[in-house]
Amino acid sequence: MSIHAHKTGLNKTLGQQSDAIVTTDLTGNFIPTAGIETLYWDNQVSSGLNLRRFNGVTHSTTDPDHFLLDGTDDYLGKASSGYGGTALELGGGTRPFTLGQWFKYNNVNHYIFFCGTAAGVSIDFVMQYHSYILLEVLTSNDQCKLTVRDPYDGFAGESNSDSATFSSFTFADDTWYYVALTHDGAADYSVYVNGSFIGSLTSTYALPYGTDSNAIECGAKNIDGTKSYSGANTKIGHIHVYENGYLTNSQVRQNFLATHDINNARVYGATYTA
After folding, report:
1. pTM of the model
2. CA 88, CA 99: separation in Å to the nearest integer?
3. Where is 260: in which H helix or E strand?
């Protein structure tokens, strides 16, 4: 694992555009002012898959537009028939990906992204616990933590996982942040806050390759059948998904700038350093 940090402001660098997000390999573009359906959040990518609003997640048009989690059972996740259609998932295996999310930290645990496969029973009737990727912010240290776990055999007790806590950056209460996670399809998982790199995790573990198994969830995690939810009053804004796209630092920053400053108006607060 390697961790680096540096500070940046909101100014563009030479050759950097911030008027639009990166569209190459974009499979999920969720805008909190568009596609707000009663039971799901409509993906603004043409023919893109949606996110279900579980347990009555509230949509608000202030501070700016966002989804408000109640801390009890609210989250955004796997769509299904009647609830937005088909689940939005990561392909797994050696496929690269990038995930980005605006959220307002409220001094409560927030499970930014959770992608995992369901636990099951193998052909020899031994419990197989699921693999997952979890990016979270914890109130114990106001820092970001990334965990990647391979499937393991419950009978043998094997737990194959790697994790890293990125101590170079501390989240402030009552503040909006854009956090992104990239994976190169090999062993590099990198985390960015407000367009700046804060650290990486080197791990050969990955989600299994396949479909209907690696659904994306925001605001909840499901570890070995135990569901936990982000704390009360967590707010979620824009979400970006690149199912087969590995964005560079410059491209992550482009997405940050494009969604922070819309039509020359700062949307998610006045000033950021990361």
Report:
1. 0.89
2. 12
3. helix 249-260
Tokens 């009663």, residue? 38
Can you tell me whether residue 230 is helix, strand or coil? coil
In one-letter notation, the amino acid at residue 89 is E
Q: Which CATH number is 28-35+89-263 given?
A: 2.60.120.200
Assigned token pair, 77: 């996740």
Query: Using CB atoms within 10 A of its CB, is residue 183 exposed (0-12), middle (13-18) or buried (19+)?
Result: buried
Q: What is the Cα–Cα distance from 198 to 6, expressed in whole angstroms?
A: 8
134-155 per-position pLDDT tens digit: 999 999 999 999 999 986 655 5
- Regarding predicted confidence, which is higher, 21 or 159? 21
- The most distant pair of C-alpha atoms in the chain lies apart, rounded to whole Å, by 60
Tracing tokens 């199912």 back to the chain, one arrives at: 243
Burial class of residue 108 (count of CB atoms within 10 Å of its CB; 0-12, 13-18, 19+)? middle
d(CA 180, CA 195): 8
Q: Tens of pLDDT along 186-203?
A: 999 999 999 999 999 999
d(CA 225, CA 211): 20
| pLDDT score for 51 | 97
Torsion of CA 31, 254, 262, 97, to 10 degrees: 0
